[in-house]
Design a protein that fits this description.
The chain is α+β, with helices and mostly antiparallel strands. It has 2 domains: 96 residues, Sandwich (Immunoglobulin-like), CATH 2.60.40; 314 residues, Purple Acid Phosphatase, chain A, domain 2, CATH 3.60.21. The chain is built from 7 helices and 23 strands. The strands form 5 sheets. Strands 3, 4, 5, 7, 8 and 9 form a 6-stranded antiparallel beta sheet that branches. Strands 12-11-10-21-22-23 form a 6-stranded mixed beta sheet. It is globular.
């Protein structure tokens, strides 16, 4: 989405006379064929808007509605660009109190193409990962800083992804944060404002789920008393297509790009306490569970990517793997089998190491769980846990990010998963052909 020459520019904000008006962003949020979400955070209350134009016709300039940024939302706001068309690329600019703010990196977005009955599905790439800890000594534990290698966000931007899915623990609430809106807003602002992240935010479409550290306390569950406030702050800092589905609350959403449907799940808001023994133990909650199965059955996408904070397929009942809730995990796998849902690939974070877990299912196609972690948080130097379903060459015990590339024509569609370190060196590549995610004889 941007040229190599532009990527060499030093990332910085332009300072208006004696005052920096942009705290973080702009960030490109969800993208649909007829509208795109644009996000910005300012340093004080201002009137913010965006101007944008298609690169195919730069003489025709559109202007969004104006929004007043307010202190309750840490001066952050999301504004919709609603004069867009399918399959176009746009440039945009930020307008604050009637004045254009200049940036030394590209501000660009795009819309999904209208491709069905017109040709092959589009090729596109999705960056992904989890666990972004940004140090702040005043609130951190004593000792060696837990976060580091923030340059990884520049490495992600250099890969020019079309989309990015943040897999949870996107910030790390500290003890001073999670009980108040003030604390949560501070934590998001602190993490979102680092210089290394800004170019990535500005030209890649971002989608997010959460895990425990950006939901509430460590290992948090539905008992967290402040979860509605946490969800409201999540809405303030992410520009997802939705925050919940139907009547079901949570950091839940879904979207499509080309022939791929993405299902982003909430594994905290409805989660029963891990050590309760006399209730039906659940990670997703019944409403979210049923919605997921319904949506997967309804989908005719080539790939159905199901994302959640914790691992689906790792068979070890340790930490917060789905295997700790064996009844619901088994039920999910059973429903996928009974309903003969094709094309499913799981995408997860949380674990502070990266791996692909593959579950072979006899006559059914194999399921894959692509776990990418961490971005900048602490990591394990060695991994000794005996995940016997792991594809060994995909194990990474260092800071890293993933890239999902959907390639090929309709008759040769494939997902190529790559893993990169903070220096943008490729660590491994693994291919999943769409033909391998089908039943031998499909029943309709």
């Amino acid at each position: 989405m941007r040229t190599a020459a532009l990527l060499t520019l030093v990332i910085s904000f332009t300072l208006l006379p004696q005052e920096r008006l942009v705290q973080s962003g702009p960030m490109v949020g969800y993208s649909e064929m007829r509208e795109v979400a644009l996000w910005i955070q300012t340093t004080r209350a201002v009137n913010a808007s965006f101007r944008y134009w298609a690169t195919s016709d730069p003489t025709r300039v559109y202007t969004t509605a104006s929004a007043r940024t307010i202190k309750r939302d840490a001066f952050a706001t999301t504004i919709v660009a609603d004069s867009v068309q399918p399959g176009e690329r746009y440039e945009y600019e930020v307008v604050i109190d009637g004045e254009t703010v200049a940036f030394e990196y590209p501000l660009e977005f795009q819309t999904p193409p209208l491709w069905r009955w017109r040709g092959d599905p589009p090729e596109f790439t999705v960056a992904t990962g989890s666990c972004a800890f940004i140090n702040e000594a005043k609130y951190d534990r004593a000792g060696e800083p837990y976060g580091g290698e923030y340059r990884i966000f520049r490495a992600v931007a250099a890969r020019n992804p079309d989309l990015m899915i943040w897999l949870g623990d996107n910030v790390y609430f500290r003890e001073a944060d999670w009980n108040t809106r003030t604390g949560m807003l501070h934590r998001y602002t602190h993490g979102r404002s680092i210089e290394e992240m800004q170019a990535l935010l500005a030209s890649t479409h971002h989608y997010a789920i959460w895990d425990d550290h950006d939901f509430g306390p460590n290992n948090g569950d539905r008992s967290f008393w402040n979860k509605r406030e946490a969800l409201d702050v999540f809405k303030t800092f992410w520009a997802n297509p939705s925050y919940g589905v139907g009547e079901t609350e949570g950091a839940i959403t879904t979207f499509s790009w080309g022939d791929v449907d993405f299902f982003l799940l909430d594994n905290r808001y409805h989660r029963s306490p891990q050590h309760r023994r006399h209730v039906e133990r659940t990670v997703l909650g019944e409403e979210q569970f049923q919605w997921l199965i319904d949506a997967l059955v309804f989908s005719d996408a080539t790939f159905k990517v199901v994302a959640m904070g914790g691992q689906f397929l790792n068979p070890l009942p340790i930490f917060e793997n789905y295997a700790v809730y064996p009844e619901e995990r088994a039920r999910l796998l059973s429903e996928l089998e009974k309903e003969r849902v094709e094309g499913v690939v799981f995408l997860t974070g949380d674990r502070h190491h990266t791996e692909i877990t593959r579950l072979d299912r006899g006559e059914s196609y194999p399921l894959h769980d692509v776990t990418i972690s961490p971005f900048t948080s602490g990591h394990r130097d060695t991994i000794t846990e005996p995940n016997y379903l792991r594809i060994e060459e995909t194990l990474v015990a260092k800071r890293n990010f993933g890239l999902l590339a959907f390639k090929g024509g309709e008759d040769d569609r494939r997902l190529v998963v790559s893993c990169y370190d903070s220096d943008n060196e490729r660590l491994w590549e693994y291919e999943i052909p769409a033909a391998d995610l089908r039943y031998p004889s499909r029943e309709r």
